[in-house]
């Protein structure tokens, strides 16, 4: 039996993951509406992945399952996180392309949703466009897609750790 050094229950650990996702999404909205930095289509898809992770973290916290259920909830969080991390990695890659290799700017996400079939819209968004290559926000010299990639990886690790570790029975 592995020990949980913090003494947190699975529910508390998954609640912390849900709160982490909510804080990240709240900050994204702050950047959009207060700092007036509009998200590109890849940014919006990353938000959706954080929402999915947050929902699975919250469901796991509310349910409080036993061993197998914990692994199922963790797997759902991990899959959502891997999708988001893949999108973030693609976004980071686009931002590091030489200027002559950056794709042209495409239509906005709202137009793509209205004008194209879903599969084609996803392909267009994941291909990226010139607006996705712009770096218009940094912290410590690192652009937002790299920070989101880091956050996805931390949350994935947290979900796995939470599912595999237990508190000592005497500590309950």
Summarize, please.
With 172 residues, the chain is mainly alpha-helical. 69% of the residues lie in helices and 2% in strands.
For the largest sheet, list the strands in their spatial order.
1-2
Strand content: under 5%
Total helical elements: 7
What letter string, H or E per element, gives the SSE order?
Answer: HHHHHHEEH
Number of strands: 2
Q: State Rg.
A: 18 Å
Structural class: mainly alpha
What characterizes the major β-sheet? Answer: 2 strands, antiparallel
Average pLDDT rating: 83
Spans of at least 5 consecutive residues whose pLDDT stays below 50 are 168-172
Distance between the termini: 15 Å
Q: What portion of residues is helical?
A: 55-70%
What overall form do the CA principal axes indicate? elongated
Describe the protein's architecture and organization.
- The structure is a single chain.
- The protein has helices spanning about 10-35, 40-65, 65-95, 110-115, 120-125, 130-135, 145-165, and strands at about 140, 140-145.
- By secondary structure, the chain is mainly alpha-helical.
- Helices cover about 70% and strands about 0% of the residues.
- Helix 1 packs antiparallel against helix 2, helix 2 runs antiparallel to helix 3 and helix 2 runs parallel beside helix 7 (about 145-165).
- It contains 7 helices and 2 strands; from the N terminus they run H-H-H-H-H-H-E-E-H.
């Amino acid at each position: 039996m592995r020990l949980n050094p913090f003494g947190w229950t699975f529910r508390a650990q998954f609640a912390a993951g849900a709160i982490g996702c909510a804080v990240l999404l709240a900050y994204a909205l702050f950047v959009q509406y207060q700092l007036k930095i509009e998200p590109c289509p890849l940014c919006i898809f990353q938000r959706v992945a954080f929402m999915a992770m947050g929902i699975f973290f919250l469901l796991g916290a509310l349910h409080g399952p036993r061993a197998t259920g914990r692994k199922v909830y963790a797997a759902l969080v991990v899959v959502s996180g891997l999708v988001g991390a893949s999108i973030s990695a693609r976004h980071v890659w686009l931002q590091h392309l030489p200027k002559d290799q950056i794709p042209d700017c495409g239509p906005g996400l709202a137009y793509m949703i209205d004008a194209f079939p879903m599969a084609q819209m996803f392909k267009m968004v994941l291909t990226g466009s010139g607006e996705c290559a712009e770096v218009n926000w940094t912290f410590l010299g690192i652009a937002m897609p790299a920070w989101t990639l880091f956050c996805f990886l931390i949350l994935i690790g947290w979900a796995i750790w939470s599912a595999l570790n237990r508190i000592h029975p005497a500590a309950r």
